[in-house]
Amino acid sequence: RELTGSNKILRQHHRDTLLSANNLGLALRKRCEAEVIYQHTLISAEKMFRSDY
């Protein structure tokens, strides 16, 4: 009977770990996308600046 309880806790913990890993992955993807957008903005600004001179 005790075994069932600890199994339940383990499953819950496993699910929580999966959820946080998933959230971390999502956060990293968002950050990566943000960096890409930032780089593109910088490159475009540089091109515009260069074409003015």
Describe the protein in words.
Helices cover 96% and strands 0% of the residues. The model has no long low-confidence stretch (mean pLDDT 88). 0% of the residues are buried. It has one domain. It is built from one helix and no strands. The N and C termini lie far apart (79 Å). The longest helix is centred in the middle third of the chain and has 51 residues. It is mostly helical and 53 residues long.
Note the main attributes of this structure.
53 residues, mainly alpha, 1 helix, rod-shaped
- Main beta-sheet annotation: none
Number of strands: 0
Give the overall form: rod-shaped
Average pLDDT rating: 88
Radius of gyration: 23 Å
**How many structural domains can be distinguished in the coordinates?**
1
So how many helices? 1
List the helices and strands and how they pair.
Elements: H1 2-52
